[in-house]
Amino acid sequence: MAKTAIIIGATGLTGSLLLQCLLDDNRYQTIKLFSRNSCKITHSKIEEHLVDLFELDKLQDLFIADEVFCCIGTTKSKTPDKATYLKIDYGIPVSLAQICAKKGIPTFVVISALGANKKSKLFYNRTKGRMEEDVLLEKIKNTYILQPSLISGNRAEKRFGEKMAKVLMTGLNPFLIGSLKKYRSIHPKTIVNAMVWLANNNYKSSRIQSNEIQKISDKV
Predict the structure, then answer these.
(1) Over the stretch 20-39, which tens digit does the pLDDT of each residue have?
(2) Domain limits, the chain
(3) Which of 114, 2, 22, 139 is nearest to 69 (CA)?
(4) In whole angstroms, how far apart are CA 93 and each of 71, 161, 180?
(5) Across-strand partners of 110?
(6) Are 219 and 197 spatial neighbours (Cβ–Cβ below 8 Å)?
(7) Distance (Å, rounded) from C-alpha 152 to C-alpha 82?
(8) CATH number of 3-217
(9) Is-contact 18 33, C-beta < 8 A?
């Protein structure tokens, strides 16, 4: 049976790769995109909705799908205001999970971050930790929270600090072995492969750390 998927954040680095992957996947007939900006791709599978992502609860009638992928996220440099940051990295994923639960969508896959912890002293990690906990409270049948380390790859916007960190991590990766493997930088295509595999297979855990993401991607 042909599937319908929803992607939130299809214009970002990982989301755009996920969109292309689903366009090439014969299991998917319709891909609904909810975004502030157009992906600028014309394809028979794409159903694009340009919306205010802070008001997704008003669009629940459009949420008819087999799975929802949430690739939304921001950074301190891009969103210095903590209230807005919270609305993006916490509010949007939790709102999506609530809609999935209400509409009976059985699969929700969301990108979080390694180090997510609601008790962390770091605002970024604490926000991700709170998001994870409240997503899991919705008890969606198949909930998968991916916790990647630093994501490699080239973004459209310039992030000097992140670029330098990527260069450093590339050199360190070979030395991160054993229990330290989860700290290796990870390519967005690896994350995408894991997201699609998880949406189409059963997996033992809901929270999936970076080294596990790599192992799942290797199954593809």
Answers:
(1) 999 999 999 999 999 999 99
(2) 3-217
(3) 22
(4) 9, 26, 28
(5) 70, 145
(6) yes
(7) 25
(8) 3.40.50.720
(9) no
